[in-house]
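Hi D.,

Good news: the full-assembly prediction came through. Inputs first.
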Amino acid sequence: MSITINHLTHIYNAGTTFEKKALDDVSLEIQDGEFIGLIGHTGSGKSTLIQHLNGLVAPTSGEILLNGENIHQDKNRLKEVRRRVGLVFQYPEHQLFEMTVYKDVAFGPTNLKFSEDKIRKNTISALEAVGLGEEYYDQSPFDLSGGQKRRTAIAGILAMEPEVLILDEPTAGLDPKGREEILSLIQEMHQKRKMTVILVSHSMEDVAKMAERIVVMHQGKVVMNGTPKEIFSCVEELEKMGLAAPQVSYVVRALREKGFPISPDIFTVEEAKNALLALLPHNS
Amino acid sequence: MKMVTAENVCYTYWKTVEQADGTSAQKEVNALCGVSLSIEKGSFTAILGHNGSGKSTFAKQINALLIPTEGTIWVDGMCTSEAGMLWEIRKKAGMVFQNPDNQLVATVVEEDVAFGPENLGMPPADIRKTVEDSLLRVGMTEYAKAAPSHLSGGQKQRIAIAGILAMKPDCIVLDEPTAMLDPGGRKEVMETLHRLNKQEGITIVLITHYMEEAVQADQVFVMDDGKLVLSGMPKEVFSQVKRLKGYGLDVPQVTELADALRQEGVDLPADILTVEEMVGALCRLQSTI
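Then the structure:
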């Protein structure tokens, strides 16, 4: 599903002393099946932007088109928009509430009045997708580990069969293993189910590893938009905005200053390893 | 002098689990098993471990939020299991948690920082001085009259630290204080902690999932399954890349890069932890060609 954002502006508390322009004339085009990394410091407008994409927040001005259709054109169809654009909030495990894992995941499709058969099918397939087997179905979601809870919450979104998956900091507060589990789950949704993915993250390493394109927000505006290679070769600009590049980018930059003939757009461990092996003496 | 000494600390609790037939049963959970360690006064200690490894449970032992079910823990010589020492211990060792929104209580920054000393019954004139002083130490003086809800994550977390400083602790225990922050906020908080440690000699115990933060500590403890499995200086701990990954942990990207290059036969030292060290080692290698 393609997403087009045209001149989107959002002002919170308009007309009061707390008036704040959270989004300032944002225009953005996201193709069907793309994997976008959305970065920006706290308060840069990322969360406000993604809440517009499934109609949770309405624009002050501008429009959002899904497959060419304005989502606010027909208010009766907003429910359908919210099904097709799955939004996983920050700390989604705080929204778990049912007695069992199975019931929690089945809540969304049940609410959408899917048939009994489809509810069961979707619930089971969503739980399978996040790697929670039958032994978890009857457990209380509150007895699970942090990473498992979060996967249960994501399964609740997947069970509604969204075409776009938007995740707001899905790895915050998880340990490296839990992070890895969630990231490979997202990668799989993108590759196998061909879902359009928008990943909001403070972890530059995660975004570097996953995204095909990176959008950088600052003070309510989209200030950079390009491939990871393009974005992470601009270390200075990122730092000025309270962001950073993956650690490898800093090594590469320092090596270039010392005269190493190494390409400035390297930012992963694997790439750096290969580039350095070509330059350094080694015996294998 | 030791700030914290743990001797064979165990912590066991009973958890109610629902069984398949609908009845509930009690299950024993050993969150800590035989942890012995010591933390020097004025040092900066990092504790690592995956979720559920027992590191938060251990942190809560330091300010007596939890008491060992076996073994003993002393905080500046005071035993946490002894009744009557509780408030002295909590004044000595303050605690900061992961989510700043869950620990700020007032609607104005300076009132929030004043909450601790007010509770301790400090005279009003002293409270005012302490609050001003605490905000200055975390670099948030200009926000004294602001509403916490209008601050960034990094700023909120520094207010939470100021609230602890106002109670004049000798030791601050922080449980993943940067987990919810953006890179800029993370840097602000880490710089504040290092300044408090270096300039004022406050003992810092930092629980974190970010290996880059642990690298800057004086000593690192790694926990797994309720046990202390690895300890030492960052260089000693992080050179064991395979072992750390086995505990579900990561190493900094540069350490991983150095390790990958070493496996290909590049002659690099095993204890590279920072960008500077990596660049230095590569330059030395280059100059030998």
